[in-house]
Amino acid sequence: MDKKKQEIIRLQLTDTPLPDVQISGLPIFLPGWVWLAGAGPGDPGLLTLHAVNAMQQADVIIHDALVSEDILSIAGGDTEILYAGKRGGKPSMKQADITDSLVQHAKIGKKVLRLKGGDPFVFGRGGEEVERLVEEEISFRLIPGVTSGIAGPEYAGIPVTHRDVNHAVSFVTGHLAGSGETELLDWESISKATPVIVVYMAMKKIDIIADKLIQAGRSPDEAVAIITQATTPHQKVLTTTLHKAASDAKNAGLEPPSIIVFGAVASFAERLAWFGGDAGVQK
């Protein structure tokens, strides 16, 4: 991408406030309800109108680590903001404590918004939280969000499906709940199922995943794209190959959060990149 195009994109990432537009037909947030909303992958522009509506009505917002300050600034002035983030290797709230907090605030009549990065039902443990709400007979609403497994590649210029390349794609977590042993997944079956695999939370397991895919028969020269801080001004994209993915990621100093695309479509980042970030596409 040329420098002029990157600068145009950066100029679009301004602090200009949105116009005061009134949209009819959006729901009223009632006391004692819990709404679970996806905040998208990072770019505030990817919030849905339902999510914005919820943020401006909520009494309390309980958010995770991937929800940015830019997004939280949309909340109403009197809204209580509570951090409930969980990041690997760092002190974090337990899932049970987070769910307890939702229940406790709802039972005293607050309008409770659980705001989660991406989509609450895609590797977000939203299903577990809703099960508890049902047990406690607490009314709830679900608001889908844009998941990073689609938006991240798209901001890198990668179509997760392309008629000339693949007609199927698998979305996989690189971090198993509780065990942390990525190798326990049936990577051979995953490898054979679809030509393109999009993996969430995989940075610390990329060496294991790459080895398992090669053992399952995928070419060591298969294209791989690693996207970090997707859809934000700090987005970085590294294109590499399966057998060099782990070493290239280490040499580039890439850090989570990340989305990793395995398969031929990953190479599209070198031709279709449109979002400048602070580094563009590295190869």
Automatic annotation (TrEMBL):
GO terms for molecular function: uroporphyrin-III C-methyltransferase activity. GO terms for biological process: cobalamin biosynthetic process; methylation; siroheme biosynthetic process. Coiled coil: none annotated. Residues 34-245 form the Tetrapyrrole methylase domain. Keywords: Cobalamin biosynthesis, Methyltransferase, Porphyrin biosynthesis, S-adenosyl-L-methionine, Transferase. PROSITE patterns: SUMT_2. It is an enzyme of class 2 (transferase). InterPro entries: 4pyrrol_Mease, 4pyrrol_Methylase_sf, 4pyrrole_Mease_sub1, 4pyrrole_Mease_sub2, CobA/CysG_C, Siro_Cobalamin_biosynth, Uropor_MeTrfase_CS. Pathway: Porphyrin-containing compound metabolism; siroheme biosynthesis; precorrin-2 from uroporphyrinogen III: step 1/1; Cofactor biosynthesis; adenosylcobalamin biosynthesis; precorrin-2 from uroporphyrinogen III: step 1/1. Its EC number is 2.1.1.107. It comes from the Bacteria. Belongs to the precorrin methyltransferase family. PANTHER family: S-ADENOSYL-L-METHIONINE-DEPENDENT UROPORPHYRINOGEN III METHYLTRANSFERASE, CHLOROPLASTIC (PTHR45790:SF3), SIROHEME SYNTHASE-RELATED (PTHR45790). This is uroporphyrinogen-III C-methyltransferase. The lineage of its organism: Bacteria, Pseudomonadati, Pseudomonadota, Alphaproteobacteria, PS1 clade.
